[in-house]
Amino acid sequence: MTTRRPTAEVARALRGLVDDRASVRLRAALALGTTPDAGCVDALVERCASEPEFFVRDALTWALTRHPASVTLPRLVREVRSERARARSQALHTLSKIGDRRAWPALTRALLTDADDEVARSAWRAAVVLVPDGEEPDLAAALATQLGRGGRETRLSLSRALVTLGEMAVPALRAASAAADAEVRAHALATERLLRDPDAGFAFAIEEAKRVVALGDFGDAGRQEPPDQRGQVGEEGPGGG
């Protein structure tokens, strides 16, 4: 089989991906996305695993989304099993942007509970995008095992993922709200509060939930019916993070 040689422009962009200057790497990623070439996918995925600059990684992901999923998916699915945390995280992030549900089997329980917070957060975001119809309750149950984990950013990411699942997440949240761990109970109650009232704000929902847990008043706290449609929580509070 004959291997097609890259054009001069593509060859220059590939060299640019490993340049010491972030601005050059950014231009290279944008060039490879502007003129997609399947022969560059491996180089783009490999660079994602080691790129230190967020805005360059974002451009690398964009470049990969410009290539056919039939080419990118197999490479990204292999990458989520990498020993390097950044490689796993960025591959998961890219899969969430591509949004092809054929990648769903790669979203294993091990990734959803990965010890690295950024990998886990990327897995949660990807999972709620890729989950097949009918499997949302099982996904919610798996995500609920992570309630109470980490700091504010990690907890907000998990709450966003569960809110995205809408009413399918309610049974898992209600079960978690009776957990022995007070942090788990508070996180579950706060997430359910956000589900029914996305404008409440994450910080407010957490403080209210902690008050409820401290008082032992679980009565009707967080027990209003959730919206029929999948909810959304934004980047800062219900707006963010």
Q: Please state the average pLDDT score.
A: 86
Helix count, DSSP H or I runs of 4 or more residues: 13
Give the N-to-C terminal Cα separation: 49 Å
Oligomer kind? single chain
Q: C-alpha Rg, in Å?
A: 20 Å
Structural class: mainly alpha
Largest sheet: none
Q: Extract low-pLDDT stretches.
A: 218-241
What is the strand content? under 5%
Brief summary of the model shown:
This protein has 241 residues and is an all-alpha fold. It has helices at 8-16, 22-34, 41-48, 54-65, 69-79, 85-98, 109-112, 117-130, 136-144, 152-164, 170-176, 182-196, 202-215.
Give the SSE layout:
Layout (H helix, E strand, L loop, with lengths): L7 H9 L5 H13 L6 H8 L5 H12 L3 H11 L5 H14 L10 H4 L4 H14 L5 H9 L7 H13 L5 H7 L5 H15 L5 H14 L26
Helix pairs in contact: 1-2, 2-4, 3-4, 4-6, 5-6, 6-8, 8-10, 9-11, 10-12, 11-12, 12-13
Question: What are the salient characteristics of this protein?
Answer:
241 residues, mainly alpha, disordered C terminus
Commentary on this structure:
- The protein has 241 residues and is mainly alpha-helical.
- 59% of the residues lie in helices and 0% in strands.
- The protein has 13 helices and no strands.
- It has helices spanning 8-16, 22-34, 41-48, 54-65, 69-79, 85-98, 109-112, 117-130, 136-144, 152-164, 170-176, 182-196, 202-215.
- Helix 9 runs parallel beside helix 11 and helix 10 packs across helix 12 (182-196).
- Mean pLDDT is 86; it is low at 218-241.
